[in-house]
């Protein structure tokens, strides 16, 4: 089969994206550029051992079961107890009364019981992590779901490729485990697929052995370093380069890519800080774009603007015409401004990694067709976001309600601390009011 190395021009790889990795002390930052524009940013810090634990697998001890909440609090040896909801509990139907369908959480979990569980949502503020008992191990081409009959192939793949992969999977799928084929598997050989599955099965066997020996809450499996994790999830022929300014991390990533995607290994490059005149983020204009990404105000091409305000409950985005006075009539000016805003809001949600409930106040439009078109433009822009979103129709007041899956803290939270004088409120009460 033809090697999937991607296109090249004048000997240089061609792709829409570039991944820049900057390491400073114990902190690692990843910047994803589309062309020259920053579209995603991630940070990994030493404190992430207790806050950025999405995907980690633990032995947990049931602390207490709350039937009225249909949830249980689980000690996983982190500062805050995690929560496990009934919908995420896995049970053995043969051990339960068949009349209990579905079983109540108190029938499945008991206080002090030890369970294997995986984090599906990082702890945020005063909330603990969210757990599931349906563990999954992601590989380069497949996701292994241990002790499950789950079977699936990414719907993003063409029908003929899905059919081909199904035939391959029938030959390599382990009987006792479920497998989900990822989009990255397009064009893989049977040998590549089998190698990925075998590696994950071996990984699960090690986790199972460790779990059998452990009699108290603790970590069984830690997700790999941020850069390796991102390579596993996203790296493809669409990336023209992965540029890393730390020699040790470069070696780890290079070794991983050579093992799972050798045709792309030459795209992993070392950025020598000692030899280069500028730090990597300055060389590729990341810093200036990051500075704008944490500002509450974002300018639109025609002079309009967005105001982005985050609260504990939700994020509010206000659309303004600003300096955009248009050239024909008010409805047309507002419509064009809202179209620009729809595109930019989708970009900002990705870049700032904003999650949870989001309310967008578009400028009022009188014509329903214009409102519908802005809604379509917004959904189209969001389709490029790999994080799951749900958008509702624009209301008569121009408000859009939407949700974006929250996994961890956003960009602003990852690069800032709470202001001590105002305790994060953003205002100081007048001294004469308090006297």
UniProtKB/TrEMBL annotation:
UniProt keyword terms in alphabetical order: Hydrolase, Magnesium, Metal-binding, RNA-binding
RNA-binding keyword on record: yes
One Pfam family here: RNase_E_G
Gene3D superfamilies attached to this UniProt entry: Nucleic acid-binding proteins
Cofactor needs: Mg(2+)
One record GO biological process: rRNA processing
TM ranges: none
Molecular function terms, GO-annotated: hydrolase activity; metal ion binding; RNA binding; RNA nuclease activity
PANTHER family from the UniProt entry: RIBONUCLEASE, RIBONUCLEASE G
Keyword Magnesium: yes
GO cellular component: cytoplasm
Name of the protein described by the UniProt record: Unannotated protein
Domain RNA-binding protein AU-1/Ribonuclease E/G: 136-406
Taxonomic lineage of the native organism: unclassified sequences, metagenomes, ecological metagenomes
């Amino acid at each position: 089969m033809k090697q999937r190395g991607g296109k090249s021009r004048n000997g240089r790889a061609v792709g829409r994206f570039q991944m820049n990795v900057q390491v400073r002390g114990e902190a690692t930052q990843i910047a994803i550029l589309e062309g020259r524009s920053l579209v995603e940013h991630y940070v990994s810090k030493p404190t992430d051992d207790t806050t950025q634990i999405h995907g980690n697998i633990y032995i947990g001890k049931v602390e207490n079961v709350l039937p009225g909440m249909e949830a249980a609090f689980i000690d996983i040896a982190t500062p805050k107890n995690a929560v496990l909801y009934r919908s995420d509990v896995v049970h053995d139907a043969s051990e339960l009364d068949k009349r209990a369908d579905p079983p109540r959480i108190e029938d499945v979990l008991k206080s002090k019981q030890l369970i294997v569980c995986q984090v599906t949502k990082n702890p945020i503020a005063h909330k603990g992590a969210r757990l599931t008992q349906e563990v999954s191990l992601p590989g380069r081409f497949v996701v292994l779901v241990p002790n499950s009959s789950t079977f699936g192939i990414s719907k993003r793949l063409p029908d003929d490729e899905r059919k081909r992969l199904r035939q391959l999977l029938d030959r390599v799928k382990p009987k006792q485990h479920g497998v989900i084929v990822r989009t990255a598997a397009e064009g893989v050989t049977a040998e590549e697929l089998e190698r990925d599955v075998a590696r994950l099965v071996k990984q699960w066997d090690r986790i199972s052995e460790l779990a059998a020996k452990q009699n108290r809450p603790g970590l069984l499996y830690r997700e790999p370093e941020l850069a390796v994790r991102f390579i596993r999830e996203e790296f493809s022929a669409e990336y023209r380069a992965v540029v890393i300014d730390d020699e040790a991390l470069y070696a780890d990533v290079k070794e991983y890519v050579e093992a799972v995607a050798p045709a792309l290994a030459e795209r992993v490059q070392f950025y020598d800080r000692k030899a280069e005149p500028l730090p990597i983020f300055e060389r590729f204009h990341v810093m200036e774009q990051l500075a704008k990404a944490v500002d509450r105000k974002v300018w639109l091409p025609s002079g309009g603007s967005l105001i982005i305000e985050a609260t504990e409950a939700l994020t509010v985005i206000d659309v303004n015409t600003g300096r955009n006075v248009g050239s024909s009539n008010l409805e047309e000016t507002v419509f064009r401004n809202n179209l620009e805003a729809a595109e930019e809001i989708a970009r900002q949600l990705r870049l700032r990694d904003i999650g949870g409930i989001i309310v967008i106040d578009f400028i009022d439009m009188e014509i329903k067709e214009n409102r519908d078109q802005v809604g379509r433009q917004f959904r189209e822009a969001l389709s490029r976001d790999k994080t799951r979103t749900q958008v509702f129709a624009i209301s008569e007041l121009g408000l859009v309600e939407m949700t974006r899956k929250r996994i961890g803290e956003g960009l602003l939270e990852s690069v800032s601390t709470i202001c001590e004088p105002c305790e994060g409120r953003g205002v100081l009460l007048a001294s004469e009011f308090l006297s």
